[in-house]
Design brief:
It is a single chain. This protein is 18% helix and 42% strand. The protein has 2 helices and 9 strands; from the N terminus they run ββαββββαβββ. A hairpin with a 2-residue loop joins strand 3 and strand 4. The mean pLDDT is 95.
Length: 161
């Protein structure tokens, strides 16, 4: 697997929020991701209309909060039922999850890389995280992906050890 260190500027995202445990991912999270895809047309000011964001924060025991969203400009109004999330500028390790691969293997390899690197996962101050290794994960899904076997980019915010 390839790993790249990238700096991404702050952005504003608008979309739908899901919170739940790992056992509730199917069908709960998958339904919210599809719902966001179906409602993408409500966002007129998408910065990159070809990429849906999956922003996950492990702030729930045995689960996480996930935002299925699109990056939008400041001109975007907040449609009914959607929420806004501000993503701060940060340094990330980036890797790819390819179609046909096991997602758990992709994340295990990323965890091993992070453990052996000069970096550690970034944690926001005053936030309780339940995943000590990768408490924040951002996935960038191309809109033309196969929902049953997707390919996407993974970004984990990092800081020097």
């Amino acid at each position: 697997m390839n790993y790249e260190i990238v700096r991404i500027p702050a952005c504003r995202a608008v979309g739908l929020k899901w919170e739940g445990t790992f056992s509730e991912i199917v069908p709960g999270l998958k339904k919210v991701i599809q719902q966001m895809e179906d409602q993408a047309g409500e966002l007129d000011a998408k910065v990159n209309p070809n990429v849906q964001l999956g922003l996950s924060y492990h702030v729930i025991e045995n689960g996480f909060a996930h935002y299925a969203a699109y990056e939008v400009s400041e001109e975007q109004e907040l449609p009914d039922g959607m929420i806004e999330i501000k993503v701060p500028e940060c340094t990330y390790v980036k890797t790819e999850h390819n179609k046909g691969e096991d997602i758990s293997k992709t994340y295990t390899s990323l965890h091993k890389w992070l453990f052996n690197s000069d970096y550690t996962a970034y944690r926001e101050a005053d936030v309780d995280y339940y995943n000590p290794y990768m408490p924040i994960k951002h996935e960038y899904y191309p809109v033309d992906r196969d929902p049953n076997d997707p390919h996407f980019d993974i970004y984990v915010p990092i800081v020097k050890k």
